[in-house]
Design brief:
79 residues, 4-stranded mixed beta sheet, 2 helices, 13% helix, globular
Length: 79
């Protein structure tokens, strides 16, 4: 049985989720990764556009660990 497609968590978007974001408070990191298999209320599911444009809080680091960050060649995605 196929799981229902999850939507982007940004208000008013509704696009298909393709990434998951989390705030790692201890390390002060905004982490972005591939969409996790199960919905988690502590994480934010995002569409590709919102995952690309989300910014980290002031003085935090943005860490994009998606397997292939959209718009970047595979070598640059892991840099």
């Amino acid at each position: 049985m196929l799981a229902a497609m999850r939507a982007c968590g940004r208000q008013g978007c509704g696009g298909p989720a393709s990434a998951t974001a989390a705030l790692r408070y201890r390390e002060q990191i905004l982490w972005i990764g591939d969409l996790v298999p199960q919905r988690d209320p502590n994480l934010l599911d995002l569409c590709e556009g919102h995952a690309d444009s989300i910014t980290a809080p002031y003085r935090w680091r943005r860490l994009d660990e998606r397997r292939a960050a959209p718009g970047l060649p595979p070598a640059a995605a892991s840099a």
